[in-house]
Amino acid sequence: MAIFGMRTGEPRRAGVSGSERDRPGLRRAVLLTVVTLVAGLMLSVTATLATEASAADAMPAPARGCKDTPDGPRILAAYSIKDGELTHRKGTDCVAARQIWARFAELIPAERRTMLTRFELLTRREQGAEVFQNRNLRTWTLAVSQGLEPDLDYILIHEYAHLLTLGPEQVPPVTDANLARVSVTCPTYFTGEGCSKGGSLINQYVNWYWPVRHRQISNRDQNSDDIPRLARLFPRRFVTAYAATNPGEDIAESFAVFVTRHRRPAPTIIATRKVNFFWNRPAMRRLRSQIRANL
Ligand SMILES: [Zn+2]
Predict the structure, then answer these.
(1) Mean of per-residue pLDDT scores for the chain
(2) Least enclosed by CB within 10 Å: which of 16, 80, 115, 117?
């Protein structure tokens, strides 16, 4: 996943960011983490295809099942997104894909997801989700595995947190040709996609909660599939073990806990102070209420 920890001096990997694409072990990690953390808290997915019905009138109905074989392709279906509606582009147009997108669109307010222009349904083997920049660097793709229930809502909110914290308003896009230079000259937190703005959520979060020595440890461990070393060393600093992967995963996990937990936690340890990072911001509290309206 996350190609957006501190990557100073390293090339961006295939434009992937905010996701688990290159880290199958971490995909598993996020799923396990999520199961432990939110089992019993989340409502089951109730997305329906009602909103798709009128647009589908003139098109063939999507297949009910999306063929997913152990040695089949990783991407089962791909869609473009315009005005919140999917248009089928590749693979099999299937109900599972449209249900997952409908759930994301139900949870996340329309004006908050305008940077998403592609959606992909991934095979169950991937066991997770990811977001990554498209080639133009300003728009993004959301890719989600089939079969993530009952943790789908939590995972979708986690992925949205990457868009919230890494989107162009927070981290101005940088071309591949300029990325290495920017990674060295950036005076704020370099996310892997670019140089975060001084007042951005992730730059403030890193300044508060990620001392340089912790970033160095996470950089050294970035290719390990084990439980992150920081999670073992400092369990009270992180809301989940997966959050200790790097600052980008950490802020996404803290945001997902902020949204999905019923109550504001007392800021007695660093992990709960991180959740309060969002509680302390009125705009984030409003966003939480919007998302929770459909949880
Ligand atoms: Zn993530």
Answers:
(1) 84
(2) 80
Ligand 1 centroid to Cα of residue 252, in Å, is 6
How many angstroms separate the alpha carbon of residue 261 from the centre of ligand 1?
Answer: 18
pLDDT given at position 223: 79
CB neighbours of 224 closer than 8 A, spacing ≥ 6?
25
Strand-by-strand arrangement of the 116-122 sheet: 16-19, 129-133, 140-145, 116-122, 75-82, 85-91
Ligand 1 centre to CA of 253 (Å) is: 8
**Number of folded domains that form the chain:** 1
Check residues 24 and 238 and name the one with the higher pLDDT. Answer: 238
Instruction: Summarize the confidence of residues 93-108 as an average pLDDT.
Output: 97
Measured distance CA(243)–CA(272) in Å, rounded: 13
Lookup: tokens for 172: 């101005």
CA distance 72 to 257: 34
Residues in the chain, total: 295
Strands (E), the chain: 16-19, 75-82, 85-91, 116-122, 129-133, 140-145
8 A C-beta contact, residue 213 and residue 185: no
pLDDT tens digits for range 40-87: 333 232 333 333 344 445 567 888 778 899 999 999 999 999 999 999
| pLDDT tens profile 110-151 | 999 999 999 999 999 999 999 999 999 999 999 999 999 999
Residue 199 backbone class (left: φ over 0; alpha: ψ -120 to 50; beta: rest)? alpha
Distance CA 23, CA 29 (A): 10
Determine the distance separating the centroid of ligand 1 and the alpha carbon of 56, expressed in angstroms. 32
CATH code of the domain containing 42: 3.40.390
Q: How far is CA 286 from CA 8, 102, 153, 170, 282, in A?
A: 34, 22, 18, 18, 6
